[in-house]
Amino acid sequence: MIVTENLTKIYRVGDRDIEAVIDVGLRISDNEFVSIVGHSGSGKTTLLSMIGGLTRPTKGKVFVDGIDIWSLGDKELSKLRNEKIGFIFQFSSLIPTLTALENVMLPATFSQNKKKEVAIRAEEMLDLVELSHRIDSYPSQLSGGEQRRVAIARALVNKPKIILADEPTGDLDHETEKDVIDLFLKINKEFNTTFLLVTHNIELAMKADRKLVMDQGKIIEDPND
Amino acid sequence: MEKLSLTYVARKNIKRKLFRSIALILAVGIATGALFSSILIMKSVERGSKTAVSMLGADLMVAPTGYEAAARSSLLAGEPQTFYMDRSIEEKIAKIDGVEKTSSQVYAETSSYPCCGFRKSFLVGFDPKTDFTVMPWLNKKLDRPFGGNDVIIGSEIPAYPGFTTYVHGHELTIWGTLHRTGLKYFDNTIFIPIETLYKIAEETRLNSNVAPLEINRNQISVVLVKGEEKVRPDVLEVRIEGRVPGVIAIPVESVVHTVKIQVSSLFGSLFILSAVLWVANTLMISAIFSTIVSERQRELGILRAIGADRNAVFRLIILEAVILTSIGGILGIASGQLIFLAFKNSITSSFTSLKIPYIWPSAVNILMISLLSFISAVSMGVFGAIYPAFNSTKMEPYLAIRAGE
Ligand SMILES: Nc1ncnc2c1ncn2[C@@H]1O[C@H](COP(=O)(O)OP(=O)(O)O)[C@@H](O)[C@H]1O
Ligand SMILES: [Mg+2]
Fold this sequence. Notes:
The complex is a heterodimer.
Chain A: E1 2-13, E2 16-28, E3 33-38, H1 44-51, E4 59-64, E5 67-68, H2 74-84, E6 85-88, H3 100-109, H4 115-128, H5 144-156, E7 162-166, H6 174-191, E8 194-198, H7 202-205, E9 210-215, E10 218-221
Parallel strand pairs in A: 3-8, 3-9, 6-7, 7-8
Antiparallel strand pairs in A: 1-2, 1-4, 4-5, 9-10
Helix pairs in contact in A: 3-4, 3-5, 4-5
Chain B: H1 6-16, H2 18-56, E1 60-64, H3 68-77, E2 85-86, H4 88-94, E3 99-107, E4 122-126, E5 138-141, E6 150-153, E7 164-167, E8 170-178, H5 184-187, E9 189-193, H6 194-206, E10 219-220, E11 222-227, H7 233-243, E12 247-251, H8 252-295, H9 297-305, H10 310-342, H11 344-353, H12 363-394, H13 397-402
Parallel strand pairs in B: 4-9, 6-8
Antiparallel strand pairs in B: 1-11, 1-12, 2-10, 3-4, 3-11, 5-8, 6-9, 7-8
Helix pairs in contact in B: 1-10, 2-8, 2-10, 2-12, 8-12, 10-12
Bound molecules: adenosine-5'-diphosphate and magnesium ion.
Magnesium ion binds at residues 44-45, 166 of chain A.
């Protein structure tokens, strides 16, 4: 369960304030698949980053399973990101010096999980994204779509309750994009993972349980309101 | 597959820019090698001169004025040179207040050994009746009292008690051998009773078949002086020089001091160089790691997003620097050790020719010097990377990830 209260982010650039996100109040239930659409610059990435513990809100609160995440210290917040949240970014986010399998295992480096179990789970996840045959490949040897699938496997490796995906298919071709979204839906059903997906593709956004529309820092359309 | 750890990730990062890593490793290696060498040399010289002084067991060495340098070098480099004064000087010194013991020695020309099977060794006449510097270092000896035709030899001379030898045609028995000291003054010397040496000198003047030994009876080279417990050597020095004309009293401690200064001026610059290299390398590492951190800002942001806390990112950067500098340090120390091992003898002899006593530190000491040099190498990494590493943890993950967008 994710709850935000008056979530606001103002960037100060020079002597100008940019209101990236303004007073967003959201409730996202467990297992819900929520999509967010909106123009570029409407604040989607900033909103996702505040929910995921990547940037501190100027005002307002984020609760993940009842925990006020921005009241946590760096250690606890990092642990929460590590265990409860999986991120999928809009660009290739793999570490170029590590193989696909090592990239998928990476979150375990920062957790208490047993290395052996993680290795097994990492292989399972690569299997899930249909990349079992490429586990020893380096990111530079993989196509864009394959890289994104490795990133998805990495986001899943610690069995997070929440996946935050920021335009994860923006740079992929149509077919691949559809495959990725179908994979998300499958994961959502199979693992009961909550999804918050930012996308430009309205067609894909429609597949979600709930579609939010953002504009100029505000959520202007939410079926639940 | 290897265990995925921070160290593993750091090692993979090092391989990313191989040339940069190798250059850094070499720079650290050179600095560490220089540090290791300079400490090793200074320790060797210190050990050499300390041994020289303590082996002698005397507080002062009295020599004729004008021969201070020769006296010092005979003690430190074991190259007895020919300078003489009258034996009566010893009695005058012995009477001075605060003097506990005195003993005379005479140094003979060292080049003329036409027979005897000895390599070029030094000939020192000592007085068995008053001696307090040679006898205490006996290793093996014959089971009878020391006699007039007996000699004591240093450990480097290949002979044993009971052997017979000839010095300028005179037959002598090797009565005892000394412990190994590492100093030529002891190790490569034949100590012969002073009276016997005078007799041999007289014989050589009568016998044209043997090389002459140019020493006259009652000539001595130095008087070794031991002061009473409560009297400071420098006080004694002033007293002796004041009451006995024509001599110079050299506090033996000061010889070590002089050598230290001499060596510092020679090899202190190597030490200063390694200190300068340390600072330069630390700054270079700092610059390189600032670049590394900004190059990888997005990656570090991603690591934070997937659960690395500030501490983990900090450790990752420091680890990378420490791995690089450790490799450099080990390389520098290993090549330093190899060079010293390969040129051990020529290093020792070139020091000896500079009249600087040189004894290799013990294995334990070399280990300590290596450890110290290694710590210095690692500290370059830690100090160099600490600021960039700290900086890399300050940025919010969101901003780090979007950096360069
Ligand atoms: N680090 C930043 N500094 C200043 N302004 C920023 C920063 N990040 C985002 N913004 C601004 O905040 C607004 C929202 O940006 P963003 O959250 O990236 O929107 P979206 O993801 O919907 O494109 C934009 O006007 C953008 O220029
Ligand atoms: Mg965005």
